[in-house]
Amino acid sequence: xxFDTHAHYDDQAFDEDREELLSGLFENGVGYVLDASAAVRNxxxxxxxxxxxxxxxxxxxxxxxxxxxxxxxxxxxxxxxRTSGEWGFGLLVLEAxxxxxxxxxxxxxxxxxxxxxxxxxxxxxxxxxxxxxEIGLDYHYEDTQKDxxxxxxxxxxxxxxxxxxxxxxxxxxxxxxxxxxxxAEKAQEAGGIIHCFSYSKEMAREYVDLGFYIGIGGVLxxxxxxxxxxxxxxxxxxxxVLETDCPYLAPSPFRGKRNDSSLIRYTAEVLxxxxxxxxxxxxxxxxxxxxxVYGVCK
Length: 298
Ligand SMILES: [Zn+2]
Known about the structure:
The protein is α/β, with parallel strands linked by helices. It has one domain: TIM Barrel (Alpha-Beta Barrel). Helices cover 38% and strands 14% of the residues. Strands 1-2-3-4-5-6-7-8 form an eight-stranded parallel sheet. α2 (43-52) packs across α3. The longest helix has 18 residues, at 146-163. The two termini are 13 Å apart. The structure holds zinc ion (ZN). Zinc ion binds next to loops.
């Protein structure tokens, strides 16, 4: 069955038909979904989703573009989030967030420190929150505060190591710094996935050598994805996992439309051609890989 290792079903793009879509995924060949956290305000809703759907697991983490400043600017995101509105996820989130603010979902043994870190720890104490992510570095925007991003990347790697959980890494336009930090913070001890991999095959090799898995999504099916196709050809099958990053990055022929986990089939078909396997074999092997990384399957 399809294992979608990186989805955002908490996104408002699914507000209209989330229930219907998620309930139908199994019929469409999807066995597992990991809903990826991007910000503090996403986490309570992700927790709710993991409780509502058997096949859905979650993560806890702060995306580099959501990295928080400390001191006078505490609590203010460094950059605007790509989804609209601070409370874009509806009443359920507000409710859960209030519970968080009131300390209700903080574990009793929490230590003094940043409340964001405590929320991540509280999330990891929940049985279906399997990983720390998405964390990393993103230098794409002009107003990037690299130091803030690095600080949060390091803190969250450290939490992952403390909890013996894998990480999944978002890295854009930050190849050298990401690898340097992975090494410096000994992130390989936590292990995990380099999500939506966008670098060279030489860089892929560095990560595979450290034991990381390479996350491949819909971009593989795009005509201009020459570099990623080279990476896919190069990385051994036992180090590849599939992902959607839905609602974003729908595979061809659905490019530009809303993505969902069932469309991973199209990515699997392209990967199968590259690897000389059948799409079913690709789906099965990547499922086994994802089960190994996240430790969720029977
Ligand atoms: Zn994502």
